[in-house]
Amino acid sequence: MQDPADPRLRLPDAGVAELRAQVEAILGDRALLQKQQARAVREVVYRLGQGELRVAERSDGPERWVVHGWIQQSISLYFTIATLEEYQAGEIEFHDKIPPKRGLAAAGVRVVPPGVVRYGAFVEKGAIVMPGYVNIGARVGAGSMVDTWATVGSCAQVGRGVHLSGGVGLGGVLEPPGARPVIVEDGAFVGSRCIVVEGCLVEEEAVLGAGVVLTASTPIYDVTGAQEKVLKGRVPARSVVIPGMRPRKFPAGEYLTPCALIIGQRGESTDKKTSLNQALRDFGVPV
């Protein structure tokens, strides 16, 4: 199988501004993909996999996260130029355009069979991937756990010290360019079978109980005060969240529709593990 990291296929000496200019030129004229400019696309995906580039970055500005749409577009272009090839893992045969990432052991990443980290994803040293999946463009921070059958979708950003429990699904996004990917910030805990999609943001050290579903339109009700507060697309830092239901009227009658409930906050503690366990006990949160 062709090695997509081969320097002869990339532009190892190009600066970020040059790479962006070449990608944007290709977007204006797709015929350039058949020429040398395709090397810029391969270089962007290679640097994503090395952690030198990332789709979204934390910002000190009014927007908590800045999304680099041209990098998302580079990934989409990469699918255009990549070719279907056969490759094997032991006796198991695959047929795909994007191979699994290599060199994870040397990078200090533990991957338990049949866990997969796809080429173009970046996993920091000390992270663990159980039999789960980390897609192209995604990033997983040091000390994080991608537990059994958990999925980190394309371009999703998972911080450091995060636990994605069994069966968690973090959605991916490539289009439209600039759309915010799913982001789970440092120290968060995401319980079993949670689904987080459509660019939702889970802020630092938040706790999602088992089965919470978050989409861009899912109402998140903070019920910790005398009056409820309604949020969408964002779980505030250190919040403890469980799944809930709310009545809604339709022409055919009144039905219960899903929502999420903020029922408390994690207590202050220098030991985050102790703080997490205490939060789960205090609020009876299933994981």
Report what the structure shows.
This protein has 287 residues and is of the alpha/beta class. It has helices at 16-28, 38-50, 69-81, 272-283, and strands at residues 56-58, 65-67, 85-89, 92-96, 110-111, 116-117, 122-123, 128-129, 133-134, 139-140, 145-146, 151-152, 157-158, 163-164, 169-170, 183-184, 189-190, 195-196, 201-202, 207-208, 213-214, 219-222, 229-232, 234-235, 239-250, 253-265. The strands form five sheets. It has a ten-stranded mixed sheet, covered by helices on one side. Strand 25 and strand 26 (253-265) form a beta hairpin. Helix 2 (38-50) crosses helix 3. It is globular. The chain starts with 15 loop residues before the first helix and ends with a helix. The model has no long low-confidence stretch (mean pLDDT 93).
In short:
This protein has 4 helices and 26 strands. The chain is α/β, with parallel strands linked by helices and 287 residues long. Helix 1 packs across helix 2 (38-50) and helix 2 packs across helix 3.
